[in-house]
Amino acid sequence: MPKKTTFLQLIKYGIVGVSNTLISMIVIFLLLKVAGMKDGPANLIGYIAGLINSFIWNRKWTFRSRTSWRQTFVPFILMFVICYALQYGLLMWLNEYSTSYDKYYNHLIGMAFFTIINFLANKFITFGKER
Length: 131
Known about the structure:
Blueprint: H1 3-33, H2 39-62, H3 69-97, H4 103-126
Helix pairs in contact: 1-2, 1-4, 2-3, 3-4
InterPro entries: GtrA_CellWall_Glycosyl (IPR051401), GtrA_DPMS_TM (IPR007267)
Membrane topology: Multi-pass membrane protein
Protein name: Sugar translocase
């Protein structure tokens, strides 16, 4: 795939990612602050909200998938689950061992980590076979 196309995908993925992050952050922080929910459930629900947005926009706009959504949905979810588990492990580790006592920063660090590994997984695995 030409470098220009990859760069454009990265830019689009970043734009979609910003909207995913905003959706996830708003949901997580509202659940933590307003609903008094614990980190784990709030984090999962926030990521699911971002996941729905991500699948729709990345499939159609970023990667311009021509494959049926049914063929890309399961790999997309599988990549999400794997990347989410890695992110969640990092979050729990940061909450336990970080010198920062502000768990909100730890969520942001986890989100950045998730974004990088999830882009690579979707580019090369979920939508990679279409090239």
